[in-house]
Design a protein that fits this description.
mainly alpha; two-stranded antiparallel sheet; 29 helices; 2 strands; globular
Length: 622
Amino acid sequence: MTDAALGLTMLGLIVVVIMLGFPTAFTLMGLGIMFGYVAFYDPSAPFFDNRVFDLMVERTYGAMTNDTLLSIPLFVLMGYVMERGALVDKMFYSIQLAFRRVPASLAVATLIVCTFWGIASGLVGAVVVLMGVIAMRPMLKAGYDVRLASGVITAGGTLGILIPPSVMIIVYAAVAGQSVVKLYASAMLPGFFLAFLYLLYIIGWALVDRKVAPPLPESELHTPVPGWVTGLAQRYSRNLLAALALAVARPVRAAGIEFDGAAIRYRTLLKNLLVALAPLLLTTATLAGIWWYVTIHRPASLAEANPPPRIEQPAPRVAVPPPAADEAPKELGSGAAEAETAPEPEQEQGLVGSMQPDAGAAAPADAGPPREFFTWFWVSVALCAALLAYYYWMLGAEQFVILNLLTGSVMPLGILTVLVLAVILFGITTATESAGVGAAGAFILALHAKTLNWSRVKEAMFLTAKTTAMVCWLFVGSALFSAVFALLGGQQLVEKWVLSLNLSPVQFMIVSQAIIFVLGWPLEWTEIIVIFVPIFLPLLKHFDIDPVLWGTLVFVNLQAAFLSPPVAMSAFYLKGVSPPHVTLNQIFSGMMPYMLIVILCMVIMYLWPGMTLWLPVYLYGG
C-alpha cells in the first residue's frame, strides 16, 4: 500500500472509530502514532528511536505554547460560574412578561434567553439543559406543540457557539492561523441574523397555526404590583416616570407610603427613578458611543496610523554671477548644455508642487465618515426618540414593575456581555484579557445575586479544568494527526484531486460547505474543526476565497451539527430533562425546520458577503 493510500485509510478510519464511541482526542493521537510509526519506520533503528515520538512531543509543546488557546479556560470558567449562579430564572420570567402580548410569547422569551445566555456562557449543553428545565414544562403546560417547544430550545441553545465569545471560533483561529478578533467581528452580525430568522419562524408559525402556541390566559398576562408603586401612582401621577420625578422633587407627599414594612426612603425613590430612566440612559449611551467611535476615535486612529507624507524642502539656490568677458573661452556647446539642463523657475515650482498633497483629495482621516452615516444616525436618533416617548407615555404601574424586573435580571448580564465584546472588538484588550474580565464579572454577578457558594465554585473550577483539558488534548491530537496525514501525502493527494475537478470558486464553496454539512450528521463540531477543516484550508488560497468568510460560513454550518440526527447532542440533552411523554422523534421533528433556516442563512451570507466582512474590515481594515 502506498503512502497516499495509507493517508486516505487513516482519514476514513478516524471517522469509523469516532462513530464507535472512542474518545476523539486519544483516537487522533493513537492513529497518528500508529500511522506515523509506519511512515517513519526504519528497520535498522531500535523500536523507540522512531521519529514519530519526537513529532508527538513537538506537537504537544506547540499546543502548550499557543497563545490563542489561553482564552479558552477563562471563557469556559465564565460560562460555568454563570450557570452555577442560577441567574436565568428571573431573566426568563421578566422577558416573558415583557413579550406577553407577542404570539408564542413563551417561545420568543425562550429564544431570547437562549441567545443572551449562550453569548454569556458559550456552552451548548448547559444552555439546552438549563432552558429545558426552566422553559419546557411551562410551554407544554400552556398547550404549546411539543415540536415548537423542543425546537426553540435546541436551536436557540446552539447559538452560543456562533455568537462571540465562542470557544469554537478560538479553536478555528488556532487551526487556521487567523485573528481571533477578526473572526469574532465576522461572526457577530450573522449570529444575530440567524437568531432573527429563528424569531421570524416562531412568530410566523404561531400566526399561521394558532393551535401550536395558544394565547396565554388573562391571569398570566399580569404581574402583581407592589403597594408602594400603587401609592405613588395615586398620590402623584398614573405615569410612573412623572410620579417618581415628582416624588424625588417633593418627597413630603410620599411620607406615608410603606416600602418593605417601613416608610419609603428618599434613596429608594432616587434608585427607582434611575430604574425608570434606564431605557433612556442605555439608548443615549449607545448612540453617544457610536458617534464617538465613528466621528472622533476612528479618524484619530487613522490619522495616527497614516501620518501625512513629509515634504522635503528644496535646498536654496545660490545665484552664480555671469562670467566676465575676459574669462577663458568655454568648450563648444557647453553653454547650450547648461541652458538645457538648468531647470526653469516654473518647472522647479511644478516639481515642488507635485510633492505636496492635493488639497482636493483629502486623506482618509480628514475625509471622516461618509455622509450616509450622518443620515442614518439622525434617522436612528429620531426613531429611538419616538419609541422612548411612546414608551414613557404608556409607562404605568405594571409596566414599571416589569421594567424593574428586566433591569435587575437582564441588565447586569447584558452589560457584562457588551463589555467583554467591546473591549475585544475595539482593540482595547486581547481576547485572553477580555476573557479574564468576563470571568471576574461572572463571579461578581453571582456574588451579587447571592447564589454562589464554595460548593458551586468548586464544581465550576472542576468542569472548567475538565473542558479545557479536553480541548487542549484535542488540539494536540489534531496537530499530530494532520502532520502524519500530510507526511503520508494524503493532503497533497486531496489537493490534486480537487484541483483536477476544475471547480470554480462558487462550486468549491458549495462543495466544501456541503461536505461539512453532511459530516455534521455523524460528527460533532470539534472533530470537524480539528480534522477536516485543515484539509480545506490550503485550497482556499487557490480559489481566492477569504478564510474569514469561509470560516464564518463553517460556524453557521456547524449549527446543524447539534441539530442533525443521529448524533444531535442537543436532542439528547433536552430529552434528559423533558417529561416522559416527550419522545426523541418529536424533538427531532421540531429541530428539522431550523436546519433549513441555517441553510437559508448561509445562502444569504454568500450572496451578501458584506454582512460577514463589513465589520472586521471597518474595524481592522484589510
